[in-house]
Structure formats: structure tokens, C-alpha cells
Design a protein that fits this description.
With 358 residues, this protein is of the alpha+beta class. Strands 3-14-15-16-17 form a five-stranded antiparallel sheet. Strands 10-13-11-12 form a four-stranded antiparallel sheet. The protein has a three-stranded antiparallel sheet with strand order 5-6-7. A hairpin with a 5-residue loop joins β5 and β6. It catalyses: gamma-L-glutamyl-L-cysteine + glycine + ATP = glutathione + ADP + phosphate + H(+); gamma-L-glutamyl-(2S)-2-aminobutanoate + glycine + ATP = ophthalmate + ADP + phosphate + H(+). Keywords: ATP-binding, Glutathione biosynthesis, Ligase, Magnesium, Metal-binding, Nucleotide-binding. This is Glutathione synthetase.
Length: 358
């Protein structure tokens, strides 16, 4: 870090002025969340947590991540269309919205294109939804062309039998699902771990060695906890060096991963049980810490040692067996204090960030 930047980071008056400008700018540009205290009120909002300064990201790695995204789109699509692979892989393991403003942003963009949007919970769809003889989906009398899931990615999102009935109704319908259930399952941790096994990517890209190499270059080490010799080796490996690994359950949303001595506690209890198959083990990534300020409502301003994670967005559309659209459509950099092992923006640990390409 240059002497000049160190001086800027420690200039309290300058940092305070920049902080006020940054918060106002965030509010002006719609970087908003409802508050933790009043998550259901549209009248009390604050800025979504973010970093005061952008985080340096190597240019080559940034473009590598963007370039491989369309291959990942194809991989997910091919996995989702292979029910035998999904069944073989997944058979081995045992409503408050605070970030509503990104939902509204999507809705507003659609309304600009004269595409009406309605927001409904699963129970609402069960009560007011129906399929006609052609399996067209209707909700409150309106035919639905696209079902876009903002929820339903974890078992606890299905709080009643009505929730499951609504999901089944939508899956059976002619409406485009984003994602459908097979694509949802293709994104599970267990499928990720299986794809890291030798020869599995080649199964989906039999004549594309360069594509396989580009995808595999992004993988961290992923290890099975299936019952048997290989899974037993993984357990022993994790117990011997827990700080080198992350134990991951089949959950999304941040704050679910297990680290350090907690890995030992979980695996000591589960090492002889089939319940261990609900997890996978991954090599712990060790990014270089960067100094930055994390701006959160009500939190004191202080300089933190931070770790960042780059996520890349992809979008594809398939008609029958033909992929008619496949693009990389954006990125998201999330940053958290290095004192936190796990957690995303929605979980209240990470904050929004911007990459500074270097």
C-alpha cells in the first residue's frame, strides 16, 4: 500500500466527509434496505451496507471470471437436463424480506417495458392459482408467463403443505420458471462437489477440452463425505487440519458454513452417521486482506481488515433443447471484515463493494 493511500485512510476529517457524501449518494441511487427493526414497513428505510472505497481486484482474474460464465451457464443447463445424474448425486444426502428494493428495481425495469408484475407468496399462489386444461398458470385471474423465484431455495422456505402444492403447481405449468426445479437442484453444493470429480465435467463437455479446462481452473478442492472409504478419508483430513477447510451444508443465503474447531465438533458427532452426507468439504480460500471502511447504519466508523468475494451473474434461455440466449450479465463484489468467517449481505455480515481493477 502506498504511503499516500495510508495517509488518506487515517485522515479522520477527510474520511468523515467522504462517509457523509457516500451515504447520501447511496440513498440518491437507490442503494436501500428496510431496517432490521421495521422490516415490513415501507416508510422506514436506510442505505444498504457498503464499503467506503473500492477494493483492488486483479484485472486478469476479473476477466477470467467473466469469460467462463457462459460455460457455467451451459454446464448448469446440461446438468439440469440430466435427471439420472441429479438423482444419482442427490440421492446420497439426507418470510421477511429486508432487501425488497432490489425486487422492486427488477419490477420497475419490467414495467418500463409494459410487462406487468405481481408479487405473491407460495400460500397466495396455492389459494388463488390454478392450471387450465392446457396447463396455463393463472393467479388472481391473470395468466402468468414467467415465474421468478425470490424465495424457495431452502427447505425452511416451505412452511406449509400449501407451499409445496404451490411449487408443484408452478412446476407443472407452461410458465417459464426461473429457475425450474431441475436447475435449482443443479446448483446445490453436492452437485458442485460431484462436478469437481475427475472425468465428470468431460461427461457434459465430451468434445470441448478447452471449456473443461476453463471451468476446472476456477474450482477449489471439493471433497465428498459420502459413506465409504473416500468419505472416511475426507473426515480424517478435516479433523487433522480443520483450519484448512470449510464444511458446507446444502443451504444458501450466507451464515451456514462451518469453520475451524466447529468442523471437528460436527464431524466427531456425525462421522459414523449418514447425516454427514448432507455436507461437503471444501479447501478454505485464503484471499489477501485489504484495509477498508465498512459503512453500516448505526455502526461506528472504523478501519477494518477486509476479505472480498466476486460473484458473476449469468443468464440463459432454453427453448426445448436449444439454448437461444447465453450471456454474462454482471457481477457483484461482497466484502466483510476478516474477523467474520462466514456470511453474506442478506445475513448482515458482508457489504456491497466495487472492484478497482489493477
Amino acid at each position: 500500500m502506498s504511503v499516500k493511500l495510508e495517509h488518506v485512510l487515517k485522515d479522520e476529517n477527510l474520511i468523515k466527509n467522504i462517509e457523509e457524501i457516500a451515504k447520501d449518494t447511496a440513498l440518491l441511487h437507490g442503494v436501500l434496505m428496510r431496517t432490521k427493526e421495521t422490516p415490513n414497513s415501507p416508510e422506514v428505510v436506510s442505505y444498504a451496507p457498503f464499503t467506503l472505497f473500492p477494493t483492488p481486484v486483479p484485472t486478469a482474474l476479473f476477466h477470467q471470471a467473466l469469460a467462463v460464465q457462459t460455460h457455467f451457464n451451459r454446464l448448469v443447463d446440461r446438468v439440469s437436463q440430466n435427471p439420472a445424474f441429479l438423482e444419482e448425486t442427490l440421492a446420497r444426502f439426507e418470510d421477511v424480506q429486508r432487501n425488497i428494493y432490489d425486487h422492486r428495481f427488477v419490477e420497475n425495469e419490467l414495467w418500463k417495458r409494459n410487462i406487468p408484475v405481481i408479487r405473491r407468496q407460495f400460500e397466495d399462489v396455492c389459494r388463488s392459482g390454478s392450471l387450465d386444461e392446457s396447463r396455463r398458470l393463472f393467479v388472481d385471474g391473470h395468466e402468468i408467463a414467467i415465474v421468478y423465484f425470490r424465495n424457495g431455495y431452502m427447505p425452511q422456505n416451505y412452511t406449509s403443505e400449501e407451499s409445496w402444492e404451490a411449487r408443484l403447481m408452478m412446476e407443472r405449468s407452461l410458465a417459464v420458471k426461473c429457475p425450474d426445479i431441475s436447475t435449482h437442484l443443479a446448483g446445490t453444493k453436492k452437485v458442485q462437489q460431484e462436478l469437481a470429480q475427475r472425468g465428470v465435467l468431460e461427461r457434459f463437455f465430451p468434445d470441448e477440452p478447452e471449456t473443461v479446462a476453463q471451468i476446472r481452473a476456477t474450482f477449489a478442492g471439493l471433497y465428498t463425505l459420502d459413506m465409504g472409504e473416500e468419505g472416511d478419508k475426507t473426515v480424517a483430513m478435516a479433523l487433522a487440519n480443520p483450519d484448512q477447510y470449510v464444511l458446507k451444508p446444502q443451504r444458501e443465503g450466507g451464515g451456514n458454513n462451518i469453520y475451524g474447531t466447529e468442523i471437528c465438533e460436527v464431524l466427531e458427532n456425525l462421522k459414523s452417521s449418514t447425516e454427514r452426507t448432507a455436507y461437503i468439504l471444501m479447501d478454505k480460500i485464503q484471499p489477501v486482506p485489504v484495509q477498508n471502511y465498512l459503512l453500516r447504519p448505526g455502526a461506528p466508523l472504523k478501519l477494518n481488515s477486509c476479505l472480498s468475494e466476486l460473484g458473476v451473474f449469468g443468464a440463459y434461455v432454453r427453448k426445448g433443447k436449444d439454448m437461444v440466449f447465453n450471456e454474462c450479465v454482471g457481477h457483484l463484489l461482497r466484502t466483510k471484515s476478516s474477523e467474520h468467517a462466514d456470511g453474506g449481505v442478506a445475513a448482515g455480515v458482508a457489504v456491497l463493494d466495487n472492484p478497482l481493477l489493477v
